[in-house]
Design brief:
- By secondary structure, the protein is an alpha/beta fold.
- An eight-stranded mixed beta sheet has the order 1-2-4-3-5-6-7-8, sandwiched between helices.
- Helix 4 packs antiparallel against helix 8 and helix 5 packs across helix 7.
């Protein structure tokens, strides 16, 4: 699978399909494969770029560079190196934060942004949740962290009805996390993120999507985010934080119609 040299590190990515470019930017775990079946769905009609973040998946795992601004620059440089032209960005959770900064600081590579299960600034709920998750990671290890995190990422109804899929997600986190210390730095990175004063400057078409039962970045985070970006449209779907996995048809339909309109 291809890699691109960006800021003295290697960024691993998938490149599938043909058509207008779409970049799928995943969440805190950072491995692009976590988009699952959505990769094939987007590749049916778009040139779909799916990167691993620095510090995750098959990309380089340097000791430093763990800020949203640096990851946004990584993704922008990847698009420039591919020469695909401005892309539609679909960012989930941390990927949504990265997409916000790309729209602000790397406007030349951005055509539209879809911000999924994301936020503008850490509030008390967000900080408390991630403090507990980070403590669990550092004190009890990656397996305990993954077990706890699943409770925030999936809706109770989905866990009830699709428990084997949840267990697979937990196993993937445990087996795919090479360096828990880097994951802890990435948690600090999202806690430090705050672009509330700059969001009104975003001038690309913006869609904000959230699950009604999201316990990680609750719907009020998406409402606040949409209110700060001129012209942003808010869509609330049934499901939890990983709404693209819980509602694959509904999620893909909403995002695809938005992209096709722009």
């Amino acid at each position: 699978m291809p890699t691109a040299r960006v800021d003295d590190i290697d960024i691993h990515y998938l490149l599938e399909g043909e058509g207008d470019p779409v970049m799928l930017i995943t969440g805190l775990g950072g491995a692009g494969r976590s988009w699952g079946e959505q990769i094939g769905r987007f590749a049916h009609g778009y040139l779909t770029v799916v990167p691993d973040h620095r510090g995750a998946g098959a990309s380089s795992h340097p000791e430093d560079g763990y800020t949203i601004a640096r990851l946004a620059a990584d993704m922008a440089e990847l698009l420039r190196s591919l020469g695909t032209g401005p892309a539609h960005l679909v960012g989930s959770s941390t990927g949504g934060a990265i997409a916000q900064v790309m729209a602000l600081d790397h406007r030349d590579v951005v055509r539209s942004i879809s911000l999924v299960s994301s936020w503008a600034k850490a509030d008390n709920w967000f900080r408390h949740q991630f403090a507990v998750r980070k403590t669990t990671l550092e004190r009890d290890g990656i397996a305990a962290y993954a077990e706890l995190s699943a409770l925030f990422l999936y809706s109770p109804a989905y866990v009830r009805d699709h428990y084997p899929a949840v267990r697979t997600w937990i196993d993937n986190v445990v087996n795919g996390t090479r360096d828990p210390a880097i994951l802890a730095k990435r948690i600090d990175m999202i806690l430090d993120f705050d672009e509330t004063t700059r969001l009104p400057r975003i001038d690309v078409p913006t869609l904000v999507v959230v699950g009604s039962g999201d316990a990680c970045t609750p719907p009020h985070c998406s409402r606040d985010l949409a209110s700060l970006i001129p012209g942003a449209r808010l869509e609330v779907l049934e499901g939890g934080h990983l709404v693209a996995a819980e509602q694959p048809d509904g999620f893909h339909g909403v995002v695809r119609r938005f992209i096709d309109a722009h």
